[in-house]
Amino acid sequence: MASPKVFRVALDTPLRRLFDYLPPASPPQGPVTPGMRVRVPFGRQRLIGLVVASGATSEIPRERLKPILEVLDPTPLLDSAALELLEWAAQYYHHPIGEVVAAALPKALRLGAAARESEERWELTSSGERACAEGEPRRAPRQRALLEALQQAGGWASAEALTGRLGSWREAARALTARGLIHRTERALARASAPASVHAEGPVLLPEQSAAVEAVAASLGRFGAFVLHGITGSGKTEVYLRLIEQVMARGGRSLVLVPEIGLTPQLIGRFRARFAAPIAVLHSALTDQERLAAWRDAAGGVARIVLGTRSVVFAPVPDLGLIVIDEEHDASFKQHEGGFRYSARDLAVVRARQAAVPVVLGSATPALETLQNVAAGRYTHLRLQRRTAQAQPPRLALLDLRASAVRSGIATPAVLAIGRHLEEGGQVLVFLNRRGYAPTLLCTACGWIAPCGDCDARLTVHLAARRLRCHHCGADAPLPERCPQCGFAVKPVGQGTERVAETLAELFPTVSIARLDRDVVRRRADLEAVLERMSSGETRILVGTQMVTKGHDFPNVTLVVVLNADQGLFSTDFRAPERLAQTIVQVAGRAGRGARPGEVLIQTEFPGHPLLLSLLAEGYDGFARTALEERAQAAWPPFTRLAALRDSATTAQAALTLLTEARKLASHPPRRVRLLGPVPAAMAKRAGRHHAQLLIESPERTRLHAFLDQWLPQVEQLPSARRARWVLDVDPIELF
Ligand SMILES: [Zn+2]
Ligand SMILES: [Zn+2]
User: Which ligand is in closest contact with the Cα of 485?
Assistant: First the structure.
C-alpha cells in the first residue's frame, strides 16, 4: 500500500473544515495514521491538531501545502470508533470538527502532553561516550558532571534520578544536547491493569430487577437501548452494578455517565465498595493533571469502569461492553454554553450503536423524548415499580396557599405537619428552587425595586452576607439600608432558602436546621458535610434547592414540603412543566425511603391545575401521557425537530441584525422546514448583552439537517456573521 500523500488535520479553529498537510519532512518512527496528534504550521502560528483522515490527493495545489512539523504520538490517541463519534457529532451539531475534537480531549493533551504516562530519560550518544572518556568538556564542570553521571549509570538515567543526584542540571543538558553529546527520550510506563473482581456480593434482586438485568444482558455484544424506568428507591443502581459485573466477567469495560451534581460521594462509594477494580472518574472539578491521569487510565485500559459527567462520553474505553446513563432526564447532560452544544445522552446512544453495545438510560422520571422513543419502539422499556426496602410510596397532597395563613412562604398546615413529623422522630425536607434570602428588594414608599444593571432581572437579597446579587450575571453589590431614589427604608420581599431556614429556626428553636444550596455548598467537601449531618440524624430539617433532589439517600425523611410549585406552571418555555413534574417526583422520592411511610405536601395557588391533578392522580406516567399529547398538538419536540440560531450583542437591535439577514437567506425554505423569528429572548438582556434567537423547525430530522447543511455556510459568509457572537444550538433544551 502506498503511504498517504496528504493528511487531513482537525485544528481548534472556528472554521468548518479539515486542513491538509504533507507528510513530515523527517519521517517519524512509524507510519502516521488517523488519531495521532501532530504539530503543524498555521499562518504564523504552530498548532497542535489531530489527524482525522489521510488520502492521495488534496483540493489544494501541492506547492501550497506545508509538511507536518512533528508527530506527537507513536500510536493513535483515538481509535477509529472514537473518531467516528467525533465526526458524527460535528455533522449532527453542525459544528467545526476542530472544536469538537478540542472539546473531547483533556486540556493537557491539547497542549501536547504525552498520551501515556512516561518517563523522561537522558542518554549518552556515542560521541558523548567518547567525550566523557576524554574528560570533556574540561571548562564546563556541570556539563562534565552530567556526562559522568550518565556514564556511571550505564549510559542513561531518568530525569528524576538526575535531579536527585545533581540538583540542577537542565542548563547543562541543553548545552550537551546542542553539541550532540546526549539526547532526551520518553519511555512509556506500562501500568499493569489490576485484576477486576467483585468485592462484595450484592443484595438479592427483586423479580423486576432480575428481569431488567436479564433483558440487557441478553443484548451484550450488540446494540440495544433500554430505558430503566424505576421509581425512586427501586434499585436502579443495583441493576447497573450487576450488568457492569457481567461485562467485567467477559473482560469488557463499562462507561457510566452521571449528571454534574449527581456525582456524589455516595454513588462513587457504592461503585468502589462493590468492585475490586480500578475506576477512572472524570468530571469538571478535576485539575488538568488529574483529568489527564484519569483519561490515561481510561485510554490505557487500566480502568475497568470509566465514570463521569457530560464530556466523559468522549473518553476512550477499550473493549467497551456497556454504557449506562444515570438520571438520563437531567439537563446537565446537555452542554448549553459555549460553542459546541451537544447532548451527552444522545451521543451516548450513538456511541453505543457504533460500538454495538447496549445502553441503559436510567431515571425515575424519563425525559418525554425518551418516553416517545419507547412509544415509537426504538427503546425498550424496563419498569421497576417496587421499592427495594419495605417502604410505601409517599402520599402526595396539594396545599392551597390561598386558603391558609402563610408565614414567609410556609402555610400553617405545612408548619403543623412539620411539627408532627419532628415529634414522631422523622426528618423533614423543605424544597424551594430559589437561593438567597429574598428575590426582591423593595422600597414601600416609592416602589423602587433593586434591578440588575446588566440583566432584565432583579437583584436577590443575601442577608447574612449583606449583599445584593444577580443570579444571572453574578453582579454583586452591598445591601443598601435605604432607597437610593427617595431615602426611605427598603425591605426584602419574597423568600429564598436563607429566609425559609430563618423562619423555620424561629418556629422550631430547639431543632437543628441545615441548608443545601449553592451558597452553602461551594466545594465537594461542603456537600459531604451537609449529607453526613443529615444521615447521622443531627440535622432534623433540611432546606434546599434543586440540589436536594439529586439521588441522595435520606432514609429517615418522612415529610417533604414543596414550597412553591407554581413557577413551572406558567412559563414561556414549553419544557417548564416537564421539569416541574420531574422535580416534584424526584424530591418526593426522598420521602419514606426507610421503613416509615412518607408524606409530600405541595404548596400551590392553583390546586385545580390539570398538570398537578394528573401528577397526583396518576403519577409521572399520567403526567407524561398528558404532556406528550399537548406537545403533539402544539408540534413541539419530540414531535418536531428544532435548532436555534442564537446571537447576542450590546444593543437589542444589533442582536437581531445577523438573525434577520440569515432569515432573508431562507426566504423560501424547503418543504416542511419552518423558520420562526427572529425574536428577542424571553429574558433578553443578560450580563450586559442582548440575546435573540431564530428557530428552525421541521417534523423530519433529515429535512432539518439537509437545510442546515446548505444554509449555515451561507450564514457564515454574511458580513455581519464575522462581527457577531452567534451559535447554533441543535435540539435546544432551553428556549429563552
Ligand atoms: Zn424609594
Ligand atoms: Zn445580572
Answer: 1
- Ligand 1 centroid to 475 CA: how many Å? 21
Other CB atoms within a 10 A radius of the CB of residue 376 amount to 9
Q: What is the CA radius of gyration of the chain?
A: 30
- pLDDT given at position 1: 47
C-alpha–C-alpha distance, residues 600 and 612, integer Å: 13
- Give 484's contacts (C-beta < 8 A, 6+ positions apart): 448
Work out the percent of the chain whose per-residue pLDDT is above 90.
58
Exposure string over 133-148, b if 16+ CB within 10 A, otherwise e: eeebbeeeebbbebbe
User: How far is ligand 2, taken at its centre, from the CA of residue 458, in Å?
Assistant: 8
For residue 447, the ligand closest to its alpha carbon is 1
Give distance in angstroms: CA of 476 to centre of ligand 1.
20
The one-letter amino acid code at 563 reads L
User: Quick check: 644 and 694 in contact, CB under 8 A?
Assistant: yes
Report how far ligand 1's centroid is from the alpha carbon of 278 (Å). 62
CA–CA separation, 176 vs 150, rounded Å? 12
Q: Which of 615, 634, 568, 193 is nearest to 365 (CA)?
A: 615
- Rounded to the nearest angstrom, the distance between the alpha carbon of 450 and the centre of ligand 1 is 10
CA of residue 687 to ligand 1 center, whole Å: 25
- The label of the residue with cell 517519524 reads 28
Phi, psi of 620 (to 5 degrees): -65, -35
CB 341 within 8 A of CB 207: no
Least confident of 162-171, 223-232, 287-296, 298-307: 162-171
pLDDT tens for 205-237 read 999 999 999 999 999 999 999 999 998 878 899
Taking the alpha carbons of 17, 22, 26, 32 in that order, is the dihedral positive or negative? positive
How much distance in Å is there from the Cα of 489 to the middle of ligand 1? 8
Tell me how far apart the alpha carbons of residues 277 and 658 are, in angstroms, rounded to a whole number: 53
Q: Going by DSSP bridges, is the β-strand pair 727-730/689-698 parallel, antiparallel, or unpaired? A: unpaired
How far away, in angstroms, is 480 Cα from ligand 1 center? 12
Note the pLDDT tens digit of each residue in 93-111: 999 999 999 999 999 999 9
Q: How far is the CA of 658 from the centre of ligand 2 (A)?
A: 24
pTM of the model: 0.86
Q: What is the mean pLDDT of the chain?
A: 89
Max mean pLDDT among 113-122, 123-132, 211-220 falls in 211-220
Amino acid at 657: T
- Rounded distance between C-alpha atoms, residue 580 and residue 641, angstroms: 23
Say how many Å lie between the CA of residue 491 and the centre of ligand 1: 10
Ligand nearest to the CA of 449: 1
Residue 553: predicted pLDDT:
73
Q: Which of 439, 449, 455 is nearest to 485 (CA)?
A: 449
Query: How far is it, in rounded angstroms, from Cα 40 to Cα 21?
Result: 8
Q: Nearest ligand to the C-alpha of residue 471? A: 2
Considering every ligand atom shown, identify the ligand nearest to the alpha carbon of residue 445 and give its number. 1
DSSP code, position 46:
E
**CB distance 366 to 578 below 8 Å:** no
What letter does residue 70 receive in the DSSP assignment? E
State residue 498 phi and psi, 5-degree precision: -60, -45
